[in-house]
Automatic annotation (TrEMBL):
Pathway: Quinol/quinone metabolism; menaquinone biosynthesis; Quinol/quinone metabolism; 1,4-dihydroxy-2-naphthoate biosynthesis; 1,4-dihydroxy-2-naphthoate from chorismate: step 3/7
Enzyme class name: lyase
Organism: Photobacterium atrarenae
Protein name: Putative 2-succinyl-6-hydroxy-2,4-cyclohexadiene-1-carboxylate synthase
UniProt entry keywords in alphabetical sequence: Lyase, Menaquinone biosynthesis
EC number: 4.2.99.20
Gene: menH
Domain AB hydrolase-1: 1-232
Family: Belongs to the AB hydrolase superfamily. MenH family.
Catalysed reactions listed for this entry: 5-enolpyruvoyl-6-hydroxy-2-succinyl-cyclohex-3-ene-1-carboxylate = (1R,6R)-6-hydroxy-2-succinyl-cyclohexa-2,4-diene-1-carboxylate + pyruvate
Length: 242
């Protein structure tokens, strides 16, 4: 199992899930460019990040893998799954998407690009505590209580900086192709996980025709808010590979 985190995160975010799964399956977390141990690595765009992911899989000698991604990591995961891969390279056998957007229509892209540029500039120069506090007040994080928000701010402030801004610009949702149709044509199982309280992504999932697990008492970041239930949904998906 290969895990991709979201913006402002790192591979360490998956630790509660990996504790559930690592006894049954080998697990690899990837710190995406600008994040964690890869904070000094840059990305030029979706193709560049996709190539970096492929290079890491080859570096570790992985032959068959299930890819699990959250938010930005889910978008990169679906892009990776939909792009051509070498016939003699590692084989993707399953895809799990947590709170990932399938892509915007052309009419919404300019506004999203402007919004992402606004946040990128704040990540470049703003005081971490204030910028992160404002970031986690966005509607997608409405299910978080004050303690959860403060925990995330404390966890993320050391990751704050220009690498985050660069990655946000490189992989903006405004630059992502619409991938839902391609996902539906993949010759492998795709499963979508979202939180009961994440209204936006529940609606996206419901309209996708993908297999969906809705996790109770969870918002956008299901694996952080309900790691046991997320792990149970993941384990159910993995049964088909045993």
């Amino acid at each position: 199992m290969v895990f991709l985190h979201g913006l402002l995160g790192s591979g360490l975010d998956w630790a509660p899930v990996i504790r559930h799964c690592s006894s049954a399956y080998p697990c690899l977390t990837i710190d995406l460019p600008g994040h964690g141990q890869s904070r000094d690595i840059t990305a030029l765009g979706f193709d560049d990040v996709n190539q970096q992911i492929s290079d890491i899989l080859c570096q570790y000698g992985i032959r068959r893998y299930v890819l699990i991604g959250y938010s930005m990591g889910a978008r990169l995961g679906m892009y990776h799954a939909c792009m051509p891969r070498p016939a003699n390279g590692p084989t993707l056998v399953g895809l799990v998407l947590e709170g990932g957007h399938f892509g915007l229509p052309e009419s919404q892209r300019a506004a999203r690009l402007a919004n992402d540029e606004h946040w990128a500039q704040r990540f470049m120069v703003g005081p971490p505590e204030q910028v992160l506090s404002d970031w986690y007040q966005q509607p997608v994080f409405a299910s978080l209580d004050a303690a959860q928000r403060q925990y995330l701010i404390t966890q993320r402030r050391d990751l704050f900086g220009p690498g985050i801004a660069q990655m946000l610009r490189a992989t903006s949702l405004a630059k992502q192709p619409v991938l839902l149709a391609a996902l539906g044509e993949l010759p492998l199982p795709v499963h979508y996980i979202c939180g009961e309280k994440d209204a936006k992504f529940r609606a996206l999932a419901a309209s996708s025709a993908l297999e969906v697990s809705v996790i109770p008492a969870a918002g956008h970041n299901v694996h952080a808010e309900q790691p046991d239930l997320f792990s149970a949904a993941l384990a159910q998906f993995l049964i088909q590979f045993q």
